[in-house]
Amino acid sequence: MKQLMTAAILATLVGAPAFAQSVTDQTGNLGRDAIVRECNLQASKAYPTRDSNWSFSAYRACMAEHGQSE
Predict the structure, then answer these.
(1) 0.70 cut: is pTM over it?
(2) Does residue 49 form part of some domain?
(3) In whole angstroms, how large is the CA radius of gyration of the chain?
(4) Would you state the pLDDT for residue 39?
(5) Domain range for 26
(6) Cβ–Cβ under 8 Å, residues 25 and 1
(7) Lowest mean pLDDT: which of 18-22, 28-32, 49-53, 57-61?
(8) Positive or negative, the Cα torsion across 38, 42, 48, 50?
(9) Count of structural domains within the chain
(10) Are 62 and 39 in contact (CB under 8 A)?
(11) How many CB atoms lie within 10 A of CB 39?
């Protein structure tokens, strides 16, 4: 049992850096946040009719123009 716990702790310590975000990922998210805000603003300008998918389509089109996934 002691060997099993030691192996689990060692695997956690060795594998932990693989789950950390790099600095470039964090700065890339800032650009995506601005794009999401801009696309939400454009989608909110759509005429709000009952059961309309226009705002969803506008948001998706804006994200596609910026090369981002939804």
Answers:
(1) no
(2) yes
(3) 21
(4) 93
(5) 22-70
(6) no
(7) 18-22
(8) negative
(9) 1
(10) yes
(11) 21
Would 16 be classed as within a structural domain? no
- Amino acid type, 20: A
Per-residue 3-state assignment (H helix, E strand, C coil) for 3-48? HHHHHHHHHHHHHHHHHCCCHHHHHHHHHHHHHHHHHHHHHHCCCC
Pick the closest to residue 55 from 68, 67, 45, 69 (CA basis). 45
Q: In degrees to the nearest 10, what's the CA dihedral of 61, 56, 36, 64?
A: -20
Question: Whole-angstrom Cα distance, residue 41 to residue 4?
Answer: 53
Backbone angles phi, psi at 50, to 5 degrees: -65, 130
pLDDT per residue as tens digits for the range 6-40: 877 766 766 666 665 554 445 456 688 899 999 99
- 55 DSSP assignment: H
Instruction: Specify the residue for token string 């964090």.
Output: 26
